[in-house]
Specification:
two-stranded antiparallel ribbon, 4-stranded mixed β-sheet, about 25% strand, about 300 residues, 9 helices, alpha+beta
């Protein structure tokens, strides 16, 4: 990190009178800030960034200096090494700016397999942050799960559906699919029926028991929503241009449908809903040529 990079960051803060998703200002005139682990976590989990100690956010980022450059560096190094998981390596630059001492700390984004970075005393759920504009926001449970799934090499579509069994899959559809695979890959014919299902990711074993995977259930299940009721397509036609608009009679929906079934059935049902609710305008030009134009081109 060079001095010019820090000065350019300060100029940007003052120009727009706001912090950004990669620049944070901290006052450290009276001592080490009580809370900066959230920004360290968010920068590590997002794009990386620079924290500049010694600026007053309340006074258009006026330079006010820091209480003690040496102690401030020690506090930051200790926080990043001992209280953050994983340890955060920083690039620290003390410098004089406008006649006062300030300190810039550059934090690089962590590699994907090291995320999420969190503040150890608060734990994974309450100490993991991401950067949203000029704010540090707690990671959602889903975002934490997504990081952990990546690290643990969890592939959601091949996760076993332990409440179901092979009998819950449509046997006719399975045989038709495997026959097509055998035509493309003749070596498949050498394998057993169950092995072919495993090779295609349709089923998987856990503790010597075989279960359909999420993908197998959603593609070949007789009724996938009996195991995954939350996986459906909600289709609605509203009387205005945004949710919450009401029509002249107080109606909130002109048409409304919950589409269930396999992925193919949900796609077909959704397309039928769209066709049913799409207007088709007939346009005839000056030459008598007719053109049918739908709401969605």
């Amino acid at each position: 990190m060079e001095k010019n990079e820090v000065i350019d960051a300060i100029r940007l803060l003052r120009k727009y009178n706001t912090e950004t998703n990669r620049i944070e200002a901290k006052s450290a005139l009276l001592g080490f800030p009580k809370k900066c682990y959230d920004t360290i976590s968010s920068f590590s989990n997002k794009y990386g960034g620079i924290i500049i100690f010694g600026l007053s956010e309340d006074d258009n980022f006026k330079t006010e200096g820091v209480y003690d450059i040496n102690d401030l560096q020690k506090q930051i190094t200790s926080l990043c090494s001992d209280a953050m998981v994983p340890r955060v390596r920083t690039d620290i630059l003390p410098l004089e700016f406008e006649g006062k001492n300030i300190l810039a700390v550059k934090i690089e984004e962590l590699r994907q397999n090291k995320k999420p970075c969190y503040y150890k005393p608060k734990g994974l759920k309450a100490g993991s942050y991401t950067r949203e504009g000029d704010r540090d926001e707690l990671l959602t449970d889903y975002e934490i799960y997504a990081f952990e799934s990546y690290n643990d090499h969890i592939f959601e579509d091949t996760r076993p559906t332990k409440k179901s069994s092979i009998e819950d899959l449509n046997e006719e559809s399975l045989k038709e699919y495997l026959n097509k695979i055998r035509e493309l890959k003749p070596n498949f014919s050498k394998n057993s029926y169950e092995k072919n299902l495993k090779l295609c990711g349709i089923v998987d074993s856990d503790n010597n028991k075989t279960y359909p995977t999420l993908a197998g259930t959603l593609i070949f299940g007789d009724y996938p929503q009996s195991f995954y009721p939350q996986l459906f397509v909600a289709c609605s036609v509203i009387p205005g241009t945004k949710l919450g608009d009401v029509g002249p009679l107080g109606e909130r929906f002109i048409d409304n449908q919950r589409v269930e079934g396999t992925i193919e059935e949900m796609l077909d049902g959704t397309m039928r809903f769209l066709r049913r609710n799409m207007k088709t305008r007939v346009i005839i030009d000056s030459n008598g040529k007719r053109e049918n134009r739908t709401d969605i081109l």
